[in-house]
Amino acid sequence: MRKLHGAKLPHRKNTQHMAVTSLPLPERVYIPMAMHIGAPCTPLVKAGDAVLVGQKIGDSDAYMSAPIHSSVSGTVKAITTYRMSNGKTCPMVEIETDGKQTADPSIQPPKVADRVQFLDAIRASGLVGMGGASFPTHVKLAAKQPIDTLLINAAECEPYITSDNRQMLEHPDEVIHGITEIMQWLEIPRAIIGIESNKPEAIRELSSQCETRAGITVSVLPERYPQGAEKVLVYHTTGRMIEEGQLPADQGVLVMNVSSVAFVSRYLRTGMPMVERIVTVDGDAVEHPCNVRVPMGTPIQDLLIFAGCRAEQTKKVLYGGPMMGIAVPDAHAPILKANNAITVLSHDTPPKETACIRCGQCVAACPLRLMPVEIVKAYHQKDWKRLEQLHVTLCMSCGCCSFVCPANRPMAQTNQLAKQALLAQQKTKKEA
Is residue 38 a contact partner of residue 264, using CB atoms and an 8 Å limit? Predict the structure, then answer.
């Protein structure tokens, strides 16, 4: 099978051998009511209320949503407003911790006897995609299409990030148990764990565990970015191509992040909802790179202090990795459910942009065989028909085109502007 293109990156997995440690409990957490794709939650608490770890503090009647729980015990100090990365706002619950971390006594393992109860349990847990997409997991698992393959995304192909790798090494039993539970209740006959070849210890550990597990295999993937992108991962592990406008479920595949399936295992065993996660803190401005277990809503500033980041060296902070990460405008921004890493860089000035020389490197690097140089041209000319012909909506924002461009042109960013402009034009045309 011909492999999809991509880019060879210096992965800089500085923390791959660093065991997960617990972050000191923050003095206050800031929990937005929108940590998922879909409708934001409505706060269920008010200023002055006492809350416990795992207590539900936000929910919504919308199907495309997920409940939100307190990650600490303490007192609600205020309900404020949080501005999300897309520019929209939502309520935010600010909680002052009491240092006791008292768990809600009502928490207990969910009772699951069939598919409906399993999906209800997943929704109640508050789980959303932990690989960065933040899609409500109960919605993904309720796919109406026939599913024959559960595909576990353990590629972790972005530079610096190793939180998934540590999950696989420290608690592989959670990964396998979560997979078997999903396979059982959704009646999926096989599962594939896709891991990049630069994680040999995880490959050995999970391969060993799979020897006695019928239907579960490990697929070793080439060390090439972006192996973890859904379309690339599905093609390289199953040979199936996700066409424009399709989801993996349309090809009979259900894709889940490896840390997400591990959480499913923990939740079914303990009943503790999604209140914490492992976060990698790394980058060229980090003195002590680390993997830390962090309560949801912890200010990023707390992680920067813990990792020894000096303020004078810190020029840019990202949610996620350097390829697809989102710039954080304020170090007091909170850790969210989908945040697998905080990348801290010592520079924020983009390299000087020069004229395009039509070398075609962006075309050669694109995993989906798109033509970024032509997309940029069509976008600036506002040629909407040409953008449709170039299939710009297939772009998955991996950033390979920008990474390989010798002229330092912002190809990936322009692709996103082109996508949004085309979608807006299509919407206007449809409503006319």
Answer: no
Amino acid at 268: L
Count the alpha carbons within 13 Å of 33 in the hemisphere toward its beta carbon.
Answer: 22
**Mean pLDDT to the nearest integer, 294-311:** 95
Measured distance CA(239)–CA(236) in Å, rounded: 6
DSSP secondary structure letters along 281-311: EESTT-SS-EEEEEETT-BHHHHHHHTT--T
Go through 205-237 and write b for each residue having 16 or more CB atoms within 10 A of its CB, e for each that does not. bbeebbeeeeebebbebeebbbbbbbbbbbbbb
Say what the pTM is. 0.94
Q: Stretch 167-188: mean pLDDT, rounded?
A: 98
What's the rounded Cα separation, in Å, for the pair 273 and 155? Answer: 25
Q: Tell me: the pLDDT tens digits for 328-337?
A: 988 999 999 9
pLDDT value of position 120:
98
Residues paired with 30 in a beta bridge: 94
Give the integer Cα–Cα distance in Å for 295 and 138: 22
The per-residue pLDDT for range 213-259, each reduced to its tens digit, is 999 999 999 999 999 999 999 999 999 999 988 999 999 999 999 99
Residue in the block written with tokens 């840019």: 316
End-to-end CA distance of the chain: 45
List Cα–Cα distances, 18 to 21, 59, 262, in angstroms. Answer: 9, 36, 19
What's the confidence (pLDDT) of residue 1?
59
Amino acid 245 reads G
CA-to-CA separations, 301 to 102, 111, 163, 311, in angstroms, rounded: 24, 39, 19, 10
Write down how long the chain is. Answer: 432
φ and ψ at residue 199, rounded to 5 degrees:
-125, 60
Is-contact 170 202, C-beta < 8 A? no
pLDDT tens-digit profile of 341-353? 999 999 888 889 9
The closest of 75, 64, 88, 29 to 336, measured between CA atoms, is 29
Name the residue type at position 266: R
